[in-house]
Amino acid sequence: xxxxxxxxxxxxxxxxxxxxxxxxxxxxxxxxxxxxxxxxxxxxxxxxxxxxxxxxxxxxxxxxxxxxxxxxxxxxxxxxxxxxxxxxxxxxxxxxxxxxxxxxxxxxxxxxxxxxxxxxxxxxxxxxxxxxxxxxxxxxxxxxxxxxxxxxxxxxx
Length: 157
Prior knowledge:
By secondary structure, this protein is mainly β. It has one helix spanning 3-14; strands spanning 19-25, 34-42, 47-49, 51-73, 76-98, 101-103, 108-115, 125-126, 130-141, 152-154. Strand 8 (125-126) and strand 9 form a beta hairpin.
């Protein structure tokens, strides 16, 4: 392996380009456990992973519109009106779906898990000044940047 090949290999590992990861959710519910499928398609090199993981998060966001905010500009105070947004996690869970393994180059893999939200969880909603959303993300724990699905918003009634 030449110097440029080694450099490309390091860049691939650092950028998480060793696999593409997808997450599918089936019939999400606050009352019952629901199935989740994680899929990974490995790139052109074998990929050693420490685990396959799943993250689930509830996130409530509120916006207070036209809040007066004092700012000092060149020795004089001016009042401007701004929207203020704040978010708070209402739930966060991370679970391991599979343990350490080596994924072969140019192959696809699937893992399944079941998610159970706690009793009393908020539903998804979108209001005029507030919203609550559920998000899910799957990833492969590797050296460098973990390949992951990114956050996927799911609707839970």
